[in-house]
Amino acid sequence: MLSVLLFISCSNHEDTEPSGIKTKTLPVEIEIPAEQTTRAWGDPGSGYSYKLPRYLYLFLVSKYADSNNDTTTTVQYITSELDSALWEKNEEENIYKYIGGIKVPIPELRTTGEVYCATSYSPLHLNSDDPLTQQDVLNTSFSFSKNDDTYAHLKDIYSTNADLKNGTQYYGIISDYESNNPYIKLKMYHVAAILDIDWNVAEDINESVSVKSITIEGLKQEGCLLFRPNKNTTAGSNTYQETFNTTPGTQWYGRTYYYIIPYAADGTNIQLPLRIENGISGGYKQTTINMTINQSSFVPWMYGNIIIKDATGWLND
User: Fold this and answer.
1) Mean pLDDT (whole number) for 37-64
2) What integer is the mean pLDDT of 50-62?
3) Cα–Cα distance between 284 and 33 in angstroms, integer?
4) Which domain of life, per UniProt (predicted)?
5) For the whole model, what pTM was predicted?
6) Best exposed site among 62, 244, 263, 300 by fewest CB in 10 Å?
7) CA distance 86 to 54
8) Which residues contact 67 (CB under 8 A, 6 or more apart)?
9) What DSSP state is assigned to residue 299?
10) Please, are residues 59 and 170 in contact by the beta-carbon 8 Å criterion?
11) DSSP string covering 143-192, please?
12) pLDDT tens digit string along 161-176?
């Protein structure tokens, strides 16, 4: 990995280092979805409030093919803090654009280049700060626990998605990388999916059944892929759970949601253990939420509807 500097400045494709040597730089323009009133693919949490990103994680993968067609690959990993005040909202395009002027030094000898970028409101704990290959970049992951700020702001993590194509190629490829004025504009998308659950207890069993709590188990918190959020296949050995405790106004019907990191062993079917506790009998029912990812490029908005019609079958520990 190369040790590099990140320039935050006005638009110019050459910067002068303290030594007086001019360095070619790549201007990188980044965008994230703005809040909306409806949900759409790639922005599963629309309609909720977010914090604008304060941290940048950028990987530049450069390749140079010499006259013998031998290819050399270099990976530059850049981290920087962002100024939240420099996110400018574009109402027409419904995006936030960072206007702080991000520029990355680039190799003098270069043939092709790709940018992988992520931003977050809270610092991310990545699995490596020394990626050597493009595959290392694709395998970049982060971990969190319920005790840290990353968990509290899962919905405020955005990244370029390695599975998103511009035609047949990754949309983060720099099209004019060999020129004197290379440039790239990237839109990032949510890394965490939203799990939206509502429940309804049939009126004729209200005297014997109410929902005291709903617990979702087996949630992923380690090894969460940053640039391939739909390619997580396991929850890992160290998981966490979310519990929603109802109130008198929501014990028979209500709604809640969580931001989670989705995972699917077969890449398509998401299965999460669910425990419902009966507030009247004290018993519980254990079931599984089954959902399907039907968009490969973006994390999904997942909706689960729990309908309880039977007063029997409640278990006791």
Assistant:
1) 74
2) 96
3) 40
4) Bacteria
5) 0.88
6) 244
7) 10
8) none
9) P
10) no
11) E--TTSHHHHTGGGEEE--TT-EETTEETTB-TTTTSSS--EEEE-EESS
12) 999 999 999 999 998 9
Q: How confident is the model at residue 49 (pLDDT cuts 50, 70, 90)?
A: confident
The mean per-residue pLDDT over the stretch 231-241 comes to 93
Exposure of 177 by Cβ count < 10 A (0-12 exposed, 13-18 middle, 19+ buried)? buried
- Rounded alpha-carbon distances, angstroms, from residue 38 to 35, 61, 131, 156: 9, 35, 38, 18
> How far is it, in rounded angstroms, from Cα 244 to Cα 7?
45
pLDDT of residue 265: 84
**CA-to-CA distance for 306 and 308, rounded, in angstroms?**
6
Instruction: Indicate if the pLDDT at residue 39 is higher than 50.
Output: no
Q: Which residue has the tokens 């398509």?
A: 268
Q: Which residues contact 286 (CB under 8 A, 6 or more apart)?
A: 273, 274, 275, 315
Would you say 127 and 66 are in contact if contact means Cβ atoms under 8 Å apart?
A: no
pLDDT the model gives residue 52: 95
Q: How far apart are CA 44 and CA 307, in angstroms?
A: 24
**Over the stretch 123-166, which tens digit does the pLDDT of each residue have?**
999 998 889 999 999 999 999 999 899 999 999 999 999 999 99
Task: List, in sequence order, every residue forming a beta bridge with 224; answer none if it has no partner.
Answer: 142
- The closest of 226, 23, 203, 68 to 140, measured between CA atoms, is 226
Pairing mode, if any, of strands 112-120 and 55-65? antiparallel
Size of the chain, expressed as the number of residues it contains = 317
The Cα 285–Cα 273 span in angstroms is 11
* Rounded Cα gap, residues 276 and 62, in angstroms: 51
The helix (H) or strand (E) run that includes residue 135 is: helix 134-138
- Structure tokens that stand for 307 in this block: 């309908």
Q: Which of 214, 57, 83, 58 is nearest to 150 (CA)?
A: 57
Q: Taking the alpha carbons of 197, 295, 268, 227 in that order, is the dihedral positive or negative?
A: negative
